[in-house]
């Protein structure tokens, strides 16, 4: 279906009323195949939803498919230091679940995330 929609001119960077993009939804579901197809059609991995969260916030689940989505997003310019509008840094959010997503945290460190980050509103 994604191939058909993209071939008919569907925009890979369209955002819904919450600002979510197809790439964010694919990442949330761990669908690295759809993410790859969207990236091939120039999906922007730096777009933010209405809460200021980029695609990396949607990769924060303990599965291999979510790890693949994270790696794809990072290879395609996702902001490794993304901070949501409520001040949460993506790495901080991942570290809160570190017992589940340790491999994702390590990938983020390899990608250059600031390991000394803090919530920008609460410190």
TrEMBL record:
It comes from the Eukaryota. Gene3D superfamilies: Ankyrin repeat-containing domain. The keyword DNA-binding does not apply. SUPFAM superfamilies: Ankyrin repeat. Keywords: ANK repeat. ANK repeats lie at residues 18-50. This is Ankyrin repeat and EF-hand domain containing 1a.
